[in-house]
Design brief:
Elements (H helix, E strand, L loop, with lengths): L1 H11 L4 H8 L3 H14 L1 H5 L13 H10 L10 H8 L3 H11 L13 H4 L1 H4 L5
Helix pairs in contact: 1-3, 2-3, 6-7
Length: 129
Amino acid sequence: MARRAQIVLLSAEGKSNLEIAQILKIGRHQVSRWRDRYAQEGFSGIEQDRTRSGRKKQIDAAEIVSLTTNTLPENATHWSTRTMAAVSGISERSVRRIWHAYGLKPHLEKTFKVTEKDQSLPDLCTGLE
């Protein structure tokens, strides 16, 4: 945000895109892009980045917790990070992070059972994406 404001202020002083780029040590195309956005949209045009293309990753922690606590994998006594990742379509690291956040350790239990405390876990944690 500060760099964008500097671009606008330097352009108000009458400096060219190339001069601003040299002063701020950035590309002249970047200077041109922010100047154009400011000219077209005003302050709101430089306030935030535009959304970028591509799909955002969606990890549903509640679904992972539910699968872990309420189901068993085929041909196994408990879930591993690998099997859970394969079934849920996310990385092993994401499974590990979710299990750690909820204190789940299915590999350390002889019988992994759902308790009343486990039932409320999905409501506690958000923003693990």
